[in-house]
Specification:
The complex is a heterodimer of chains A (208) and B (105). Chain A is mainly alpha-helical and 208 residues long. Helix content of chain A is 64%, strand content 0%. In chain A, 35% of the residues are buried. Classes of the chains: A mainly alpha (208), B mainly alpha (105).
Amino acid sequence: MGLSALPAGSREERGGASFQDEALPHLDAVYRFALRLSESPDQAEDLVQETFLRAWRSWDQYTPGTRCKSWLFTICRNVFLRGRDRTLRHDEIVQEQSGEDPRAAVRENTVFDRTRELDPEARFFRSLLDHEILHALDELPEEYRTAVVLSDLEGLPYNEIALIMEVPVGTVKSRLFRGRRRLQDRLYEYAVSMGYIPPSMDGVGEQP
Amino acid sequence: MKWYDELKRVLGRESAQDDALPACDSEAKCRDAVERIFEYLDGELEHATREEVAEHFRVCQTCYPALAFEESFSKALKSVQQGEGAPPAVRERILDVLRDEGYTP
């Protein structure tokens, strides 16, 4: 890239200090995000490294003070997606755009339906351990998982999530709704299997 | 089906079946509140709308259970501790790689 040819006062001089001040403080947050995307801690480490490398290489394209963490998350996710099987993602996108979730047709009752009699305040959610919730989260398709992670774990507003995921706000809302519903299903099934909650009266959710 | 249509369908069925609960005197308000349940919990509503929705959930026996459910779920999820962050060795490796690319703090 001919870095040595750049004039004094270039990225290396000005950039190093600002990169340290603005970008590097988010290393842990990017790592935690990478863990949710990746299949293993090793893969997550490679992803974080690649993310910061690309961020550094394009540091002069970043406008200082403009939500660096979101910018890094965008890079991280895009690096991840490019490395992933494209066929799978295409199938998921097609399914989403058609507006149909095949599983929704089979599932008539939501977890809310099934638990409101026995557990009106859905206390069973509180008996779940952190790693149990994260495990269920990691089973979601990436589009839903990322939306839920950015909203519920990172506390980002919809318009920020929309920028990171490069989709309209309406799509973010839809992914949050579907992602949370699927997560509730998984957590309910798990809670039943662990005995945190009895199976519902109509037999839905009972283990075979 | 839009995401909030699905939620409405669920709650509509519940209120029709359950005679013990007093019906809300404004179906339109129930519809609005239900459509906005996630936006409400995510803090995405403007102040006036937020107050309207909060008030509806306070008084409506039909809609309140749905809010209680989503709130419990939301709290459990938002309170998940994800862990410490990158191990020191990982951090060091990243700094090494950056330095190789001309990064100096």
